[in-house]
Write a sequence for this structure.
């Protein structure tokens, strides 16, 4: 695929002329006419290189570079300052702000292209080195249920945060539900189509580098691979080979990876479930869902999943006397329940309206303790 270059300049002639030259050289070009517009575009575009003017109103290039370097998601994007400021002090300020290279206008196209190729080459070598897995891969946890609406996404997100709080290693939470993504909406994140972009690629093009570029860092410290909420994107559920490549690379990017697999045995889950170190099945205490969950367990084990890798999380969503007790569920299911979540509708509503995971909305709540308990057990399992 062509390398993507973001050209940032408040001069329209520069945007047009330089942009045209870059396109003729085979680059995919994006343009921004202000510093603020550039910062917004970077969040969704994640270019391979930024050509950044310094003298712009409201926010100059120095400040743009500093902000890019301060954010985890954009800290490693190569930046070339491309400006008419020629003084040594200007260049020093540019490099101190985070520029990888500094070019003064006007310059010959050949010189510009040579600098771009050199910077892109250095960045590519650094990313390639970072892709080489060091040590054992991380622990891969899949979360799913026999039917929808049981809180699979909520459990996956809060478990990820709890794992991050319990240890210092990287944690990734990934949604494998194109067209049905909810985590990005719940957290108020603008960039929520990273999974879609990966599914649009050829499967063989997906590497740790490509996945890493699509991860969004949350304030809790976890990184997220988010699924689009656009219903039309559900068509990418058929890209099974892409999912297989993604799930193979994810454990090399974090110590713990929690994947929201959604409901039922989709073609994707059927294809990749054997790659997980652990599968957490979310269920509710009703006779109907016990029957459904038993069938799901049967499908998983018949497909090659090991019994010992399957755990049960029981979620009581309503305070009601009509559902079964946990002991009745265990007896009818024929399996031990790993963790039980008590009803917390008020906390769930508060978390949804505040744009925070439940575990961060009320850190001292019983629900937060239950998520922490589940995380502790996952860590123990990963070490055992």
């Amino acid at each position: 695929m062509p390398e993507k270059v973001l050209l940032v300049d408040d001069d329209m002639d520069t945007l047009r002329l330089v942009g045209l030259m870059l396109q003729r050289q085979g680059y995919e070009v994006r343009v921004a006419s202000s510093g603020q517009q550039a910062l917004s575009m970077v969040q969704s575009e994640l270019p391979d290189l930024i050509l950044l003017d310094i003298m712009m109103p409201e926010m100059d290039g120095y400040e743009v570079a500093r902000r890019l370097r301060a954010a985890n998601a954009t800290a490693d994007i190569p930046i070339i300052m491309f400006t008419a400021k020629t003084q040594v002090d200007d260049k020093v300020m540019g490099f101190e702000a985070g520029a990888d290279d500094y070019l003064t206008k006007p310059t010959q196209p050949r010189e510009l292209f040579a600098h771009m190729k050199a910077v892109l080459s250095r960045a590519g070598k650094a990313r390639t080195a970072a892709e080489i897995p060091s040590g054992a891969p991380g622990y891969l946890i899949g979360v799913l249920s026999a039917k929808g609406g049981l809180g699979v996404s909520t459990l996956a997100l809060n478990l990820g945060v709890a794992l991050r709080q319990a240890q210092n290693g990287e944690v990734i939470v990934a949604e494998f539900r194109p067209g049905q993504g909810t985590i990005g909406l719940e957290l108020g994140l603008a960039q929520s189509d990273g999974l879609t972009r990966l599914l649009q690629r050829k499967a063989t093009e997906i590497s740790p580098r490509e996945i890493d570029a699509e991860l969004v860092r949350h304030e809790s410290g976890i990184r997220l691979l988010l699924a689009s909420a656009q219903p039309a994107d559900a068509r990418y559920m058929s890209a099974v080979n892409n999912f297989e490549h993604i799930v193979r690379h994810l454990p090399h990017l974090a110590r713990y990876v929690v994947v929201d697999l959604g409901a039922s045995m989709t073609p994707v889950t059927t294809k990749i479930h054997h790659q997980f170190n652990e599968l957490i099945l979310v269920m509710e205490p009703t006779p109907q869902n016990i029957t459904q969950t038993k069938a799901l367990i049967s499908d998983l084990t018949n497909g090659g999943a090991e019994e010992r890798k399957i755990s049960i999380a029981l979620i009581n969503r309503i305070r009601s006397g009509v559902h079964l007790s946990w002991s009745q569920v265990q007896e009818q299911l024929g399996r031990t329940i790993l963790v039980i979540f008590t009803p917390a509708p008020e906390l769930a509503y508060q978390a949804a309206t505040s744009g925070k995971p439940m575990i961060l909305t009320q850190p001292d709540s019983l629900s937060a303790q239950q998520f922490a308990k589940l995380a502790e057990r996952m860590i123990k399992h990963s070490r055992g």
In short: The radius of gyration is 24 Å.
